[in-house]
Amino acid sequence: MKYYLPILPVALLVCYSQLIVKWRAQAAPVVVSDGVIGRLLAFLKDPILMSAYAAALIASFVWLFVVARLPLAVAFPIYIGTTFLLVLLGSHFILGEALGWTKILAALLILGGILLGMSSDA
Length: 122
What we know:
Elements: H1 4-27, H2 35-44, H3 47-69, H4 72-93, H5 101-118
């Protein structure tokens, strides 16, 4: 548990960021005449989307504190696994994406790996 608590805020911020980016990218109307620059400017004017990028930036700064205190070989797999699980659940419950048995099995295996990593004495 001592490894998990400092990593959880990073995973939550990254999960928020990913879910918001997907949601706003899908919600943005596609106008053929806008082009790449026009769409980029529209994204930059979206305050909700900018909050997602701010969350990702904050997560990267918090990560600096995490890796300064924890072994990278323990912290990184726990971070990636936790983020994967949070995004998987968020994409299903918030974005309505399909959640099949293979994803559920993969999530359970990852959860098992996270629990093993948290119990490590490394």
